[in-house]
Amino acid sequence: MKTRNFGFPRIGAKRELKKALEQFWSKEIEAEKLLQISRDIRKKNWQAQSILDDIPSNDFSFYDQILDLIYTFNCLPKRFKNLQKQENLSDLELYFALARGFQNEISDVKAMEMTKWFDTNYHFIVPELYTNTSFSLGKTIKIVEEYKEAKENGFNTLPNIVGPVTFLWIGKEIDKGFHRLDLIDSLLPIYTQIIQKLIDEGATKIQFDEPCLALDENPLIQTCIQKVYQKLTTDFPQLQITLGNYFDCYGANLDTVLQLPIHTLHLDLVRCGEQINDILNHPKLNNDIHLSLGIIDGRNVWKNDYKKSLEIINKVVHTLGKDRLILSPSCSLLHSPIDINLEDEHSKIHPEVKPWLSFAHQKIEELNELKLLASEKEASQHPLYIRNQIDIQSRVSSELVNNSSVKNRVQNLTNDDTQRTNDFKVRKIKQSIALQLPLLPTTSIGSLPQTKEVRKNRSLYKRKKLTEEQYSNYIQNEIKESIRFQEAIDMDVLVHGEFERNDMVEFFGEQLDGFTFTSHGWVQSFGSRYVKPPIIYGDVHRGKAMTVKESAYAQSLTKKPVKGMLTGPVTILQWSFVRDDQPREHTCQQISLAIRDEVTDLEEAGLKVIQIDEPAFREGLPLRKSDWKGYLQWAVNAFKIASCGVKDETQVHTHMCYSKFNDIIKSIAAMDADVITIECSRSQLHLLNAFSDFKYPNEIGPGIYDIHSPNVPSIYDMLDFINKAKIKIPLEQLWVNPDCGLKTRGWAETKTALEAMVSATKKARELFIEKV
């Protein structure tokens, strides 16, 4: 029996990579310093995993592993082809330009598109593919160089690479009239060259990750998988090839992969435990194939239950024997925090919860311990097993986890809890009378600029350098100034600015029972952007109001409506480490009830407009469409539980950004928010087509300018955008707003942009009023 890992967090225990990247980008350090820091991180990672039989190489990246392949294959977008020569860029500068764009007085080259890696919150750079895309290798091949570097440091590693089928599948066609998988015959020889170079350096095994096999059955994918791995196993019979799929079962692709003459097949048994029975009983199971059992959760933080894992291991051993068995995480540990031991006595983690947790370092230790226990005749008597079960049982029986009143409240939910009193047509009339808003109402999404001063005062308050009263007075002054500004430019629906909030999920989690937080539990989202997801360990409950004080204060300053701002239950769920001892649906219902209580309190405090943001609504979709119905049903109900406890006169908004809406538009409509605001500026209104084609019945605010750019559109640019929007959506349904929150922007550009937005809207009213 062997142990294996195929991906370790690349950010460094103290976020060394983030700091080095940002210093390099700001020209505070030279390239060699960045390269040295990266070498140090890789060496420490290999050392941390050295207790395993197979440790990975090529799992490190400065920015993203798909960007690494784009650069390795020299398949850069056409707009970048001559940039290096024109601007005298180093190889490293060109690499970062692909991800971040490049701009100076002469050149303005847009960055490549970024989207999420399957159903994770990790972002990758999307390959841009043309009919005539050619692939070639440069002088330096990253996977080969890192394999050599590991050997020089005394580590014989398992090179890991995203397979050619997945690489092409996640790309996008820039030209029309071809399919991206048509390029497989051009790309495959490049993989062949890489393999030969690895063999020349002494490699005897390699893992190809093909998570496209977790998607719906597709004959194109199956054909390409057969072609690729039949050829590679034929060309390199001496090489042990592992095929890795994760985030779901192989499903209808199982017959295809079991007929491949590969050495090892990896299974994600955390996301799809039942597939082990399908494989062991499959008539086409190769008598020589090895199985990599992904029994350690690579995407969550909970300690492995050795009793359950050993039951699976023993079942496989009974059929295959130990020699054909490899123990591994379900997927790369890229999605896990690095080390629970970094959480010292000053950590935010609840002390009772800490023994239940396992981060990347601990997951490596768990693999080693499971291998040891699997060889024991009486594993249940071993001290490692006993200690593990004590921790597992303490979590099961903990009063911290279980709250009977919360569970009872969820069980007593009825259909009435997911319905407004009347339908939208009736509500619209009542809200029109209550709010007295003009045609094309203007608003912003929620957050306003969080300056250095705002962040400094929050830090001082958290470190107890400011009293509660001092901090409250400071926040109220920021709110007052923001309300005065919005009134001065004649915005219609105002926001309080969210100056008291750190993160849209963390802020609420810190005030809800059932959540705990880390001090060092960073996970990479993309590039140098890291997040610290909250940990939901128990039944979720709101003890007291979370936002009413600031929102009510803002409303007291103006006669115009102010929006109460909340994060929705699905987004709080998706952007947290979620408990694994009950269905996600149940946890989401608990969060929904907590948000519902807050919505009711905001209404009682005089807020007539309440926004419940759900930017992660689509992100939660299962990978296979056959599983969509169940998810969409409970996700829609979660939003409705949160939002349906108010009067008809209270207007409920939601916000979604950077999502594809076409295939879930019915579910978005079923959420029955009175107003939805979406991102439309980058897509140039393309995303609005889904709402137009569906004849979306409620009101909609297509974001008319891109808040992620410092450029401020002119009044006429915005007026043109409004004019195009009214062609797709009836004028009386349209709102005008930016495409996302303004937290990361500066005040100068924000004021200029919002003033222009309001001016453009007033001009639009003058032009269009007679048509309504």
TrEMBL record:
L-homocysteine binds at residues 445-447, 498, 613. Pathway: Amino-acid biosynthesis; L-methionine biosynthesis via de novo pathway; L-methionine from L-homocysteine (MetE route): step 1/1. 5-methyltetrahydropteroyltri-L-glutamate binds at residues 15-18, 116, 121, 575, 619. Residues 440-762 form the Cobalamin-independent methionine synthase MetE C-terminal/archaeal domain. Zn(2+) 1 binds at residues 655, 657, 679, 740. It catalyses: 5-methyltetrahydropteroyltri-L-glutamate + L-homocysteine = tetrahydropteroyltri-L-glutamate + L-methionine. Residues 3-318 form the Cobalamin-independent methionine synthase MetE N-terminal domain. Keywords: Amino-acid biosynthesis, Metal-binding, Methionine biosynthesis, Methyltransferase, Repeat, Transferase, Zinc. One of its GO terms (biological process) is methylation. SUPFAM superfamilies: UROD/MetE-like. CDD domains: CIMS_C_terminal_like, CIMS_N_terminal_like. It holds the Pfam family Meth_synt_1. This is 5-methyltetrahydropteroyltriglutamate--homocysteine methyltransferase. It comes from Flammeovirga pacifica. The lineage of its organism: Bacteria, Pseudomonadati, Bacteroidota, Cytophagia, Cytophagales.
